[in-house]
């Protein structure tokens, strides 16, 4: 924040006059691969938000100042999303309240500067974001700032990541640069228009599943990198027969992974329930009948060494 000292001052602001841009939030729990960690983070954040709101109800104001960037006639919150959100929730309960929030205001900024600052500042506050969220957040900042030509070494230094991950980021940045065709965020009236332009450009060049996008609409780094290299996804320049073969092979590979990761009993029962009423013409006998034919009388067997505290979670590498 040292570079903003000359343009900054402190003041008390009405939270209702501030702009909370969801795209600037670094928090995105859908990027957390471990479902248990994801749930834990969400519970912690909800508890913290409720604690802030409860403090306001008891007359305890917001102690730590938030940071606001002035961009034209808007005041964007770049640090203090949850504190500001709690104030807005409090106003719904007490609309006549004169609650104000102490703010550090940075004048004469651009939207790109506000966006990048938000990604940097929201890494360690409150319920700290995970490495997956941090990496994706920094990638979004690079895209918005049009910093597509960074070398792999520069990405390692900028993001604090491994060289292998930097290679994925580099490929993803180059794909985004190609997709936007020279456009910048300032060319659009709002960020969502820029994101739509980016998505259209990427989808015109690659086969991208819906799961490739994060909650803000940006492509996930690893998924886009794999699409560029053709590791998991195939470009759209194939004929119908090749496309059908690709789709069938993809389904077969996923089924084989499920067979490998789950006991055949659980796989069959999951498959039976999934195809009921689907019209696929697939018939799977009931679990009890199959177990009886297979010579087993136990329908709920579990591993002997299972301590009932850990369940293997099968996840793709999203970042």
Count of distinct strands: 4
Please count the helical segments.
11
Q: Quick one: biggest sheet? A: 4 strands, mixed
The assigned structural class equals alpha+beta
Low-confidence residue ranges:
308-318
Order of strands across the widest beta sheet? Answer: 1-4-2-3
The end-to-end distance, rounded to whole angstroms, is 28 Å
Series of secondary-structure elements, N-terminal to C-terminal: EHEEHEHHHHHHHHH
Percent range for helical residues?
40-55%
Indicate the overall shape.
globular
Strand content: 5-15%
Radius of gyration from the CA trace?
25 Å
Overall average pLDDT: 83
Tell me what the structure shows.
- By secondary structure, this protein is an alpha+beta fold.
- The chain folds into 3 domains: 1-129, no CATH class; 146-237, no CATH class; 240-293, no CATH class.
- The chain contains 11 helices and 4 strands.
- The protein has helices at 35-57, 81-93, 111-121, 131-144, 152-159, 163-180, 191-205, 221-229, 240-261, 264-275, 287-293; strands spanning 8-13, 66-71, 74-79, 101-106.
- Strands 1-4-2-3 form a 4-stranded mixed β-sheet, sandwiched between helices.
- A hairpin with a 2-residue loop joins strand 2 and strand 3 (74-79).
- Helix 6 packs across helix 7 and helix 6 packs across helix 8 (221-229).
- The longest helix has 23 residues, at 35-57.
- The chain is globular and about 75 Å long.
- 26% of the residues are buried.
- Mean pLDDT is 83; it is low at 308-318.
